[in-house]
Amino acid sequence: MKKTILLADDSPIVGQSLYRLLATEADCELCAQAADGHEAISLAKQCNPDLVILDLSMPKMNGLEAARELKKIMPTVPIILLTLHASTVNESFAENLCVDVIVPKGDFKYLMDSVRTLLFGEASDRTDDSATE
């Protein structure tokens, strides 16, 4: 059975790009697409996604606020936060975030590696500090 992903980003261009990117994954499907945090919460309750991808900067309710609410109703569902300011967000909020991974917008390889890791436990081939055998 395919894993389902909810995507929330207020930019139609970014949303379409991410939709196309996620469509390349055979074991994943986009179950819903939202333009703001409130819509993301509403759609998450309807489609029960296996993973949520949220843009940090959205109208009405931003990605961090939406993540906090989503973790209250779906505590085991992993959340990826997309932002142009990933290093700042990591440093400023690292201990208080309700997200599992922060991904710089535009780093599609890291995004897809994170999706695979969170959904399937597949190790990333991205160079990092983890031990290798």
Q: Report, as a whole number of angstroms, the end-to-end distance.
A: 31 Å
Which structural class should the secondary elements be placed in?
A: alpha/beta
The low-confidence parts are 125-133
Helix/strand order: EHEHEHEHEH
Top-tier CATH class: Alpha Beta
Tell how many strands the DSSP assignment holds: 5
Strand fraction band?
A: 15-25%
What is the total number of structural domains?
A: 1
Question: What does it look like?
Answer:
The C terminus is likely disordered. This protein has a single domain, classed as Rossmann fold, CATH 3.40.50.2300. The protein starts with a strand and ends in a 13-residue tail after the last helix. Strands 2-1-3-4-5 form a five-stranded parallel beta sheet, sandwiched between helices. Strand 1, helix 1 and strand 2 form a beta-alpha-beta unit. The longest helix has 13 residues. 29% of the residues are buried. Helices cover 41% and strands 20% of the residues. The protein is built from five helices and five strands, in the order βαβαβαβαβα.
SSE blueprint:
Blueprint: E1 3-8, H1 12-23, E2 28-34, H2 37-47, E3 51-55, H3 63-73, E4 79-83, H4 86-93, E5 101-104, H5 108-120
In short:
With 133 residues, this protein is an alpha/beta fold. It has helices spanning 12-23, 37-47, 63-73, 86-93, 108-120, and strands spanning 3-8, 28-34, 51-55, 79-83, 101-104. Helix 2 packs parallel to helix 3.
Name some characteristics of this structure.
single chain, about 130 residues, alpha/beta, Rossmann fold, five-stranded parallel beta sheet, 5 helices
